[in-house]
Amino acid sequence: MNPSQNVIITAWNYGRMALVQRSRNRWTNLFYRGVDGDALVERRRSHDESTNIDEGFFTWLPAVFRVTREQVLAKCGPDAVHYLSFQRHAITLMFIVTIISIGIILPINFQGTNLQVDANTFSRTTLSNLNGRSYWLWAHTLISICFLPISVLIMRRCTGRKPVPTSMTGTIMITNISRADRNEATIRAYFTHNFPHIQIVDLRLAYNINKLNEVQEKKEMVTEALVYTDTYYKKTGKRITVKEKVCGPEVDALEFYSAEEKRLKDEATRCRAMVLNDPLGIAFLTLPSYQLAEHVINHFNLHRGWVLAHATNPSDIVWENLSVQPSVWYVKAIIVNFALFIVLFFLTTPAIIVNLFNTLVVKPDSVNRISSIIFEFLPTLLLWTMAAVMPAIVAFSDKFLSHWTKSQQNYSIMTKTVSFLLLMTLILPSLGLASAEAFVAWTLHHENDTMRWDCVFLPDKGAFFVNYIITSGFIGTALELIRFPELFLYVWYLLQSKSKAEKSYVKKAILYEFPFGVHYAWSLAIISITIVYSLACPLISPFGLVYLLLKHVGDKHNLYFAYGPSDMSGVGGGRIHAAAVRMIRVSVLLLLVNMAAWAGLRSGFEARTIILIMASIVAFGTFLLLSPFPSCTPPAPLQVESSVRYHEYVAPVLQKPIDSTPISTPSTPDYGASSPVTNPAYNPEPINI
């Protein structure tokens, strides 16, 4: 392998640096490679065979297909299994939709003569090429209704085999504890007195760990840098220098990090003492089983305003956010959601930017082929850019809300982002409107209603969505593999480091959990657009299928090789996966509404229109009242196990000793080895989602 290929490999695999560190000259060398630095930092080898699954240039592609479900479950956690299972079933559904659209609907649309256009034009393949009273439209009507049971039958068994944790939590989360009762003796005495026959396995209080966590992270970075500096000096006899400030003088790294470690150790000791002396109004009471916890919650009499609820797994809890009071959380939620509403209301779609661009930049009368393509491609590119940027804004704003659990944070991000994307990329562009503000103004004005409604179903309207699906499939999925946000953040951390000794710790800082909420939202938006326009514009279906295939491969690679494990499988943690499956119904409902609206405008209030309206009402009522998508959250009571392993509800920073020192030279964990995710069991019983 020549040097240029080696550089390409290291650049491509930068995202794996937090997961894989080997003795070879790979992954991290692109950004910091010294002549003798590689010999100083020894990487640990993974004891799993999957470590050697990706060994060369572009071997990640076949490696993705060789990774089994059990390997994903053991390495990435149950949430990754749920997510990939959702994608596989969505691909199956999209494959059926594509076969029907291309094999049946496309020939029907193409043989129509309503538009009187050339056979090479795009509009010849659309629904507008058929006369509004053509009997061929009954095929569209029956197929759109058949999509409803097909989607139900495929998606309701989304997971098939469900990964479950080896032990179910029997822990109760007690909140709203008054300051006078915030001690273990008082809480233990109350439950011992009122439930004398129930054994208390463990009782833990929660603390405000934000300051301690910040100090501890700095101390760990300094400690690893000190070990690196000391090892470097012993092996080479050379001293590493540190710049405390950008324009400051260079000082000896060994002396600097030794003094910093002592200072941060003393500060961490003081912070830890202050934290333990001031607990929050939250406690975790662990009982022998889930059934006993359920019994205590149901028979608990209101005592001093305490609130009892089942606790999720410790790995699902965001310990830093427990210090946020509920009243403060609601105030922040109102402010953030109001700001998002303003953005949504006034800047919903990039059509505003396109109109501004057309106003400021006058298109010349004689343009060459390249500039013509740019002007035609610009609206689609802007739409995709806004669809990629705005979910990131939604996710960032939702993190500012300080949710107590990762599952609730991802669920909130998913629901908001799906609503925004459907409105921005499907509903408003279909109506030919620029923003929600224009939609409200349209509904309030009654002039030229017929003309405006006739403009909704233009023959070439589907071309815009086909371009959007193509852009998302071939550009969007490729950029997800590159992961520019993580790359920029990694480079920013490198620029902030004071010396090369700190770069070992930077590799740990880029290990993130997969953002399920955002990726679920993107997938659901593309699925909805494809299904809604699969009959009106059949050519969109194969590109929707290609998008899901490419996204499945890219997400599986990122989950297994680039992101850390995630476990949101505790009580209520599976809600995001169940909600994603249920949201498939939105696309089917929108398809029925779209077909009913088209039939009403083109042919009037006839039998086909009535059937489609009734089908829409029945589908909506069925999904609302008798949902065919059962929840993926396990029902209570949960299975009783012979050997129960209890979780420790203690913040990770409080489990680390202050004087901890790395045993060996600093190295990053192999494939998330430091993650608290437990090894889940594999339940062979089929379940419904």
If you had to describe this structure to a student in words, what would you say it looks like?
There is one protein chain. The chain has about 700 residues and is mainly alpha-helical. The chain contains 24 helices and eight strands. The strands form three sheets. A four-stranded antiparallel sheet has the order 3-6-2-7, with helices on one face. It starts with a helix and ends with a strand.
Brief descriptors of the model:
689 residues, mainly alpha, four-stranded antiparallel beta sheet, two-stranded antiparallel ribbon, 24 helices, globular, disordered C terminus, membrane, CSC1/OSCA1-like_cyt, CSC1/OSCA1-like_7TM, Csc1-like
